[in-house]
Structures are given as structure tokens and as C-alpha cells.
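By convention, the C-alpha cell line describes the chain's fold. To illustrate:
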Amino acid sequence: MNQQGTAVSGIAKRLENAYLTYNRREFVHPDPLEFLYDYPDPADREVVGLVASALAYGNVRQILKSVSAVLGVMGTRPSAYLLSRDASDFLNDFKWFSHRFAKGKHLSALLAGARDVIQTYGSLHACMAEQIDPADRNVLPGLCRFVRRLIDGTDGSDPGHLVPRPEKGSACKRLHLLLRWMVRCDEVDPGGWNDIPPSLLMVPLDVHMFRIAQRLCMTSRRQPDVRAAMEVTEGFRRYAPDDPVKYDFALTRFGIRGDIPDPLSSLP
């Protein structure tokens, strides 16, 4: 085996070891993903996932606090809550809401869009699955169509940055988090969206993962934008072609928790 092949083999072993060691529920907290575990019905879980991923920015303690407060209003069956309310109800129910740049009007628009999609397609899952073209290299084109459909359902209200637009160049980390949570199914990701193949997923690229990818020479981009996300996904596809997002959770634990060593510590 040549030097390059040896390096690739070494990285593959480190990635797999990180997955086997840290891809466990005991390492999830603090992470908004943990809210999804309380909802066995995929109809409720996808709504919780949409809310939790949309609010997954800023200080993690504030994220958990905000998500918990929203779910407290929505009750034990978030999907039933959505379908029993309308846009004016959402505005009234969340007039108190504030999460950094997001206010009650933005959250209400997000929920109104989700309600419209569920009423039309039966679920967020069904809507997303309809947007997927099996010929696509990744989920990005379908995600663009899903986001447009979600925004169309807001009836002119503005969800602000709670619903990023992939076509504007954002890496859309939070939307790809939602997809990871709902499409993959293992000890950490609970799944539920069974009609979308994990092979199409893209890495939820944040600053932590961007730095890891740079160390692994997976991207030459200078910022974590959508093109970087595509390059990084292709880099991980080399090691897990059927599941390029497989190592995302395990690798990003190091940047979130203080009790986990860097799984790639010997790399430059």
C-alpha cells in the first residue's frame, strides 16, 4: 500500500473508532436532538425535529431552554397541536417568544408553514420525499424545493432565518441536522423518514465540522458555505458511501463536550 493509501486507511480507522466509541446516547446531552427521543410517533417527532433544528444556534443552554418552552406550549402531541390551530393562534400562543434574533412572529410563520405542508401532504416526511429525485447526487435540490414549499405555506408571513434558503449559498446546517435526525436511524439518530436514502444526506456543516474537514483536507473553501458542505460531504462519502453523514455526531462531540478527547488528535 502506498503512502496515500496508508493515510486513507488510517483516517478510516479513526473515523470508525470515533463512531463506535462516541455515537451513543450517553454523549448526546447537551444537544437539541435529545428532545426527539420523547416522541415515538414519527408524526410528532418530525414536528419536534423541525422546531429543535430551527432553534439550534447560539448558546446550547439557551437552545435547550427555548426548545423546551416551545414544546411546553405544543403539548404531548405536537402534530395534533399544529393541526388544531391557525396562524392567528400561533401568534397569540407565542407572542412572548424570543430566541436571539427570532421572535414570536418568526416562529409562528414557521409553524404555519409546517401546518400547511402537513395538511397538504399528510406529513413533512411525505412532502420532503416527494421533492427527492433519485438521480440527484445529494439531497440539496430536493431540500430547496421543500423549503420553497414550506415558505409558500406561511401565507406571506416571514419565518426569517428560522428557515434558511439553500439557493442563497448557506450551508443550511440546521436543515441538514433535521434531515440527519429524521433519515438516519442508529443509537443516536432516531429516524422516521424511511423513504429518503441516507446516501443523499449532506453534512450539517458548522464551524467545528468545517475545521475538522480542513484538517482532513476535504475542502479548500475559506468559509463553511454550501459549496464547502458539498465538498466535505464528498470527502466523507469516500469512507461511508452509503451514509456520508455517519461520523457527524461522533466527530462534533469534541467541540461540544469537555469530557471527550479529540478523535483525530494526531492529525495536523
